[in-house]
Amino acid sequence: MGEEDDLPLHTPDQEFVPSKMDNLSVEELTEYIARMEAEIARAREMIAAKQKMREGAESVFKK
Asked: What's the pLDDT band for 55 if we cut at 50, 70, 90?
């Protein structure tokens, strides 16, 4: 086994979690919300793609 086998499958992205939002300006908060909404959209796209793959696999195994 290589060193890569010991790496976690998923590393959370901490970019979207500011330690204190009290210190952010209105513009920074607006930008933060936009980044979060983009990330939510990306996650929803991934969910839809995985559901489509699952439906395809289930249809093969239900025959």
From this structure: confident
